[in-house]
């Protein structure tokens, strides 16, 4: 938690750029590796000799014989020696390393004999989802509510792999004299790629250096048959799983790293994709043919049984070539009825013929270790496959129920709103969450339009706001002689501008140039003209944004103005301090009633409700909860009113009661102001449901009223 | 587990909206710079350990406040329990500099009889081309109010560490000299558990004794 870095300032600050950077670290490691002398390379041993040309081979001999393990694992060659190559997770983490590294040697090659690799056309292929702009691709990945584009990530990297094959080939065949420039990784990725896709080629690769080059060349040029194999071995792999090591890093890292990734992406985009495109049939965005270490994005038959896939894979690959029956890998594979996907990149190799053979017991030991790893991976992946299957089933069920609910709302409830909206059945359905397609309508109806705002009034307010923006002095700093009051009001127009881009930044739709930027600007601006006494207050932009996501502009404005006109929202947005305190006191009454233990713990640590409630109430949870969950809270808030906001707060406290009771002040405060990214919706609503909003037979409204009457006595929070 | 610290200081970070308060704190506590961040509504919390001398760690509890003027009536309640504060302005935004004395007055009037050790921070110093406040005038203002002045950039990680550590050292000196005393019911400074094996110097044992009486 607390950072214990005590280094000097410069040390700490310089540290920040590569903070938590698995990729960068690995990347650096490899960079150093490829730049270092051959003797260091030999310490990283592995199957390097496979692809290197003869001249350097002798240098590898002595150290290789002392090599404890001889796996053709990509991770082994790329990472340092300390890494535990038995651990499956580290093996996984080796994969992204691989993806990052190939460009290094390619860069070397590009200047040299570009003819084979380089396409004269450096333009980005239009069909590919890559983006040169690093911020773009990364912000999407960061988003918690926006669907992650793991699909794209795969697309981004797998061609690189394929192409590293091409490069490796070129290096081996065309530029033998430059082989010392080749980084270990490009080579390893090459053999790995092949071992995944076609065993026979791999066998070839292992046994003969020179002929491997030829084989590879034909393989790549016959891209169609190659991808045939990969297509047939489609598996229900989750692209997100694949991406996850990288994305975790992407989330942590600073912008420097994003740039790094971005430039990498653009590099792939420019030189590599062009080649691929030219070579085989054009890659459609949804084409499932790309293959990355045996995993492919789920496209067709996502519920396919892994065993069946494996069988298909084996028959296919068997058909693809007669194969070498004495291949050691073959026998290993035959023993398994289910090939674990992650280990398809991990092949047990014999030492090449030009190296001394392993002692029998050592070989046996390695075989055993290898089999253990494969068995473990198999177990884990089976479990994962089952989990994914269940998730999919759940999602289907959920979608189905949403579909039927939407029908019920549309056909039965909405046409008879006034008579039905208070019925038991509708209330129950309401609690379960309003289907997104009717959400906006239901919110509008439930919030009502007490203020009788018409679309015309909205347009009038908007045009007034636009007038103001025009006359507003451009840089606020030049208006030096203003008094504080008017400067606040002026700056509220300015602040809107600044805050719009800070509203759900990860969604990328409210920012400058985004589809809803102007809409959000309009609604907030119109509101400051409609209610100049309230003006713009931070937090409003989130409420308006959620409404915009569910309603048309003018209707969103109507709902926005009416929502803010509710007593609780007025109290908060006008920062009516004493009234806010009353709300907090009422909340504490129900807090103590429902969760006495936690209440006592909070008291003991002098954690007052203002610390967490202000944010929750001001933004109606839209900033603190995942957006879909916040919308569900809004559903019931529209039905039950302010009381539900406080009930939700108690539900959250109840949900995390056990965690919170173990924390001190600062940890509780941090926890509550930054709630976990994943909050189980059903569980939360169960906890909310078990919060009773009655205290000594008094309901929320009565408690609040009573407190308002004797305000003097109960101001424990802010009047310190 | 909780790392052992000598004292815990509660710091408050104030200043106009969008001067970069949250970004500065994030850079200090998380070591990264977020291109985009939510506006702070109410107050956010951060903490970090700082080693001011070898073996002497101070736990900083940092309260990040909302900058909008409207929220001042809320945030002013948090001054009282703070021992130190960073008062930020944006060197590319003259108005945020002009508001510095408003912030100071506001703070002083709400912490009586305590006082807060403030550090004036000119933020976003990486944007030199858009500078609207010179270093000289900022230093002059800081001097007039008896504060230190430092220019920082969260984006380029300039002086971020220095700003927090300098302020922590200043407060630590005041605590060591007895100018600031630990008091019951005041959260500004708290004494941590001090094992004799690690900290055996005089002032440390004095400090730990203070908290038990």
TrEMBL record, chain A:
It comes from the Eukaryota. Keywords: Coiled coil. One of its GO terms (biological process) is vesicle-mediated transport. Gene3D superfamilies: putative rabgap domain of human tbc1 domain family member 14 like domains, Ypt/Rab-GAP domain of gyp1p, domain 1, Ypt/Rab-GAP domain of gyp1p, domain 3. Residues 278-289, 297-317 have a biased composition (Basic and acidic residues). One of its GO terms (cellular component) is cytoplasmic vesicle. The keyword Coiled coil applies. This is TBC1 domain family member 14. It comes from Xyrichtys novacula (Pearly razorfish).
UniProtKB/TrEMBL annotation, chain B:
SUPFAM superfamilies: P-loop containing nucleoside triphosphate hydrolases. Keywords: Autophagy, Cell membrane, Cytoplasmic vesicle, GTP-binding, Lipoprotein, Membrane, Methylation, Nucleotide-binding, Prenylation. InterPro entries: P-loop_NTPase (IPR027417), Rab39 (IPR041818), Rab_GTPases_membrane_traffic (IPR050209), Small_GTP-bd (IPR005225), Small_GTPase (IPR001806). Gene3D superfamilies: P-loop containing nucleotide triphosphate hydrolases. NCBIfam families: small_GTP. It is found in: Autolysosome membrane; Cell membrane; Cytoplasmic vesicle membrane. Belongs to the small GTPase superfamily. Rab family. It is a lipid-anchor. It comes from Xyrichtys novacula. One of its GO terms (biological process) is Rab protein signal transduction. GO terms for cellular component: autolysosome membrane; cytoplasmic vesicle membrane; plasma membrane. This is Ras-related protein Rab-39B-like.
């Amino acid at each position: 938690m607390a950072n214990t870095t005590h280094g000097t300032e410069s040390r700490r600050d310089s540290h920040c750029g590569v903070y938590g950077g698995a990729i960068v670290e690995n990347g650096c490691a490899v960079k150093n590796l490829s730049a270092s002398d051959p003797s260091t390379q030999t310490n990283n041993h592995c199957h390097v000799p496979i692809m290197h040309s003869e001249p350097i081979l002798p240098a590898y001999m002595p150290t290789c014989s002392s090599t404890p393990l001889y796996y053709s694992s990509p991770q082994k060659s790329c990472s340092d020696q300390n890494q535990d190559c038995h651990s499956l997770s580290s093996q996984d983490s080796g994969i992204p390393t691989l993806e990052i590294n190939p460009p290094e040697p390619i860069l070397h090659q590009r200047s040299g004999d570009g003819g084979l690799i380089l396409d004269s056309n450096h333009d980005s292929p239009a069909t590919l989802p890559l983006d040169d702009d690093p911020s773009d691709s990364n912000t999407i990945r960061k988003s918690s509510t926006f669907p992650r584009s793991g699909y794209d990530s795969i697309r981004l990297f797998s061609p690189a792999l394929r192409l590293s094959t091409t490069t490796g080939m070129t290096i081996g065949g065309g530029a033998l004299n430059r082989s010392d420039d080749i980084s270990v990784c490009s080579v390893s990725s090459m053999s790995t790629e092949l071992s995944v896709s076609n065993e026979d080629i791999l066998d070839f690769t292992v046994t003969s250096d020179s002929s491997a080059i030829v084989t590879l060349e034909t393989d790549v040029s016959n891209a169609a048959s190659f991808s045939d194999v990969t297509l047939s071995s489609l598996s229900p792999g989750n692209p997100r799983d694949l991406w996850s090591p990288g994305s975790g890093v992407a989330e942590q890292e600073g912008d420097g790293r994003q740039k790094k990734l971005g430039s990498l992406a653009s590099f792939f985009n420019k030189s590599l994709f062009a080649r691929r495109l030219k070579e085989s049939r054009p890659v459609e965005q949804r084409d499932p043919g790309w293959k990355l270490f045996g995993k492919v994005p789920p496209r067709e038959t996502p519920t396919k049984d892994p065993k069946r896939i494996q069988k298909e894979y084996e028959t296919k690959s068997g058909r693809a070539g007669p194969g070498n029956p004495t291949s050691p890998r073959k026998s290993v594979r035959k023993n398994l009825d289910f090939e674990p996907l992650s280990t398809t990149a991990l092949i047990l190799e014999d030492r090449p013929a030009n190296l001394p053979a392993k002692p029998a017991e050592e070989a046996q030991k390695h075989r055993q270790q290898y089999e253990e790893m494969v068995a473990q991976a198999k177990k884990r992946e089976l479990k994962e496959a089952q989990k994914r299957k269940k998730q999919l089933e759940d999602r289907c069920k959920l979608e189905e129920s949403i579909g039927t609910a939407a029908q019920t709302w549309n056909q039965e409830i909405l046409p008879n709103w006034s008579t039905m909206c208070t019925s038991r059945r509708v209330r129950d359905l309401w609690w379960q969450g309003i289907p997104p397609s009717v959400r906006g309508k239901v919110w509008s109806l439930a919030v009502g339009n007490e203020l009788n705002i018409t679309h015309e009034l909205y347009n009038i307010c908007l045009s007034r706001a636009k007038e103001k923006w025009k006359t507003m002095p451009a840089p606020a700093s030049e208006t030096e002689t203003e008094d504080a009051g008017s400067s606040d009001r002026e700056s509220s127009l300015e602040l809107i501008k600044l805050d719009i881009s800070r509203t759900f930044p990860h969604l990328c739709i409210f920012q400058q140039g985004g589809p809803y930027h102007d809409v959000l600007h309009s609604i907030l601006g119109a509101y400051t003209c409609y209610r100049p006494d309230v003006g713009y207050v931070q937090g409003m932009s989130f409420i308006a944004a959620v409404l915009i996501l569910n309603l048309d502009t003018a209707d969103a404005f109507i709902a926005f103005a009416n929502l803010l006109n509710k007593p609780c929202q007025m109290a908060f947005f006008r920062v009516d301090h004493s009234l806010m305190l009353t709300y907090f006191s009422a909340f504490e009454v129900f807090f103590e009633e429902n969760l006495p233990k936690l209440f006592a713990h909070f008291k003991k640590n002098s954690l007052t409700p203002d610390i967490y409630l202000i944010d929750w109430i001001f933004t109606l949870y839209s900033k603190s909860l995942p957006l879909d969950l916040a919308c569900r809270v809004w559903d019931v808030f529209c039905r039950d009113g302010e009381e539900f906001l406080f009930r939700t707060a108690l539900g959250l406290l109840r949900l995390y009661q056990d965690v919170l009771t173990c924390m001190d002040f600062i940890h509780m405060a941090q926890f509550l102001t930054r709630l976990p990214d994943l909050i189980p919706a059903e569980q939360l609503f169960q906890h909310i449901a078990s919060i009773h909003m009655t205290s000594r037979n008094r309901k929320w409204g009565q408690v609040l009223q009573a407190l308002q009457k004797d305000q003097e006595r109960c101001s424990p929070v802010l009047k310190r | 587990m909780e790392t052992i610290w000598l004292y815990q200081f509660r710091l408050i970070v104030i200043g106009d909206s969008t001067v970069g308060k949250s970004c500065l704190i994030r850079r200090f506590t998380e070591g990264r710079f977020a291109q985009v961040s939510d506006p702070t509504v109410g107050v956010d919390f951060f903490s970090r350990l700082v080693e001011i001398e070898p073996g002497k760690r101070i736990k900083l509890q940092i309260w990040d406040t909302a900058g909008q003027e409207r929220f001042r009536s809320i945030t002013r309640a948090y001054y009282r329990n703070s021992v130190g504060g960073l008062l930020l302005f944006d060197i590319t935004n003259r108005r945020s500099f002009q508001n510095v004395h408003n912030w100071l007055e506001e703070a002083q009037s709400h912490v009586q009889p305590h006082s807060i050790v403030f550090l004036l921070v000119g933020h976003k110093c990486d944007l030199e081309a858009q500078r609207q406040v010179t270093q000289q005038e900022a230093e002059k203002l800081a001097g007039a109010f008896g504060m230190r002045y430092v220019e920082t950039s969260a984006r380029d990680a300039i002086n971020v560490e220095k700003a927090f550590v300098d302020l922590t050292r200043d407060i630590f000196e005041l605590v060591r000299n007895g100018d600031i005393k630990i008091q019951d019911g005041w959260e500004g400074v708290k004494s941590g558990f001090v094992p004799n094996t690690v900290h055996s110097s005089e002032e440390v044992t004095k400090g730990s004794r203070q908290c038990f009486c």
